[in-house]
Amino acid sequence: MYKDLDAFWMPFTANRQFKKAPRLLAKAAGMHFWTPEGRQVLDGSAGLWCVNAGHARPKIVQAIAQQAGELDYAPPFQMGHPKAFELAEQVVKLTPTGLNKVFFTNSGSESVETALKMAIAYHRVRGEGARTRLIGRERGYHGVNFGGISVGGIVANRKMFGTLLAGVDHMRHTHDLARNAFSVGQPEHGAEFADDLERLVALHDASTIAAVIVEPVAGSTGVLIPPKGYLQRLREICDKHGILLIFDEVITGFGRTGTPFGAKTFGVTPDIMTVAKGITNGCVPMGAVICKQHIHDAFMNGPEHLIEFFHGYTYSAHPLACAAGLATIEVYAEEGLLTRAREMEAAFAQALHSLKGLPHVIDIRNVGLVGGIELAPREGEPGKRGFEVFVDCWENGVLVRFTGDIIALSPPLIVEHKHIEQMVGAIAAAIRRVA
Ligand SMILES: Cc1ncc(COP(=O)(O)O)c(C=O)c1O
Question: Does residue 190 have its Cβ closer than 6 Å to ligand 1?
């Protein structure tokens, strides 16, 4: 096993703590990881919400290997390769009607930057160049680049990095423990939080606002499920004022909530959607922005030899990512994985909600195959209890996610009942032990 952990400055990690007691993964297949010592760990978080079809699926592995030998790289600017077009077409077959133009990126963060730039530029090419303001939401997570942290609503991700992007405002988050604790599925109360957008319009004027960005389900800040009617109301207010609605579906995309996208699950179609993670089953970095035809078409003006949208990445539509994406979508289709979360939802919800009544459990929430268990913070030590539950689960063979004192579950969509039992059992035991 590799012993020197010094040089790697790890992302979003308590580096000093980790290097004293490392948690290393050396192998993965299906629902499991293995440590370098050969200890099996059940993956309760689909890696980082991305390995939706489970690990090391042969079809995807073979597609990547074959692609590496055939066409390892192709420049994406002014050039193309067939699999990029093929993958865009396959993605469009899954997206809600009307979302039919795909711009490839390499991550969720890049998808968010791309979507924000696209929204601002769209208004400009239509002659409404004053619409530059972006609206996010408290407790939103949209990756770590400057646009994403500016519209995002996580103080730790924002406070160290100066003034961020100008001209950004935020709506309130929708988490309402007092009214909605222990809701099964979508909470009843809180559609009116969407009216914050009307207040921001009244403050800034619609003519200055380009877009609103929200996650249909806020994942990284602790699984916040949209209250009934909330996303519908946001859509109505956006339509009324000519504001673009962006859904960040980096987590909710590709089957997590029981249909291919959160937009479909919640019955609200955005103008622009960002995805990543599940598009390649997490095997090769890739993201995408999918927009409505009219947004794309607004750029298609002027002399035809000129570039219409001055944006893109060296690795946009990378051949390995496209090969992985095509194979992933095939696996999803062959195994019905994009709707499997719906089939498993009731059993998953029942298992999760059985944790109600354990010490310090103040809320449990779920939709599709996403679950959140919120623990009361220890006096003066916010986040410590969540971290301890995470470590205890890891030591007892289950990988979960934690955000502060919230434990999140998002298993691969191939999860079976016995895995759900094991995960929930490990969490229950951990909660009791660390009490
Ligand atoms: C909703 C959302 N947007 C954006 C991102 C950022 O994606 P990435 O880490 O691939 O840049 C994430 C990552 O978890 C996410 O959950």
Answer: no
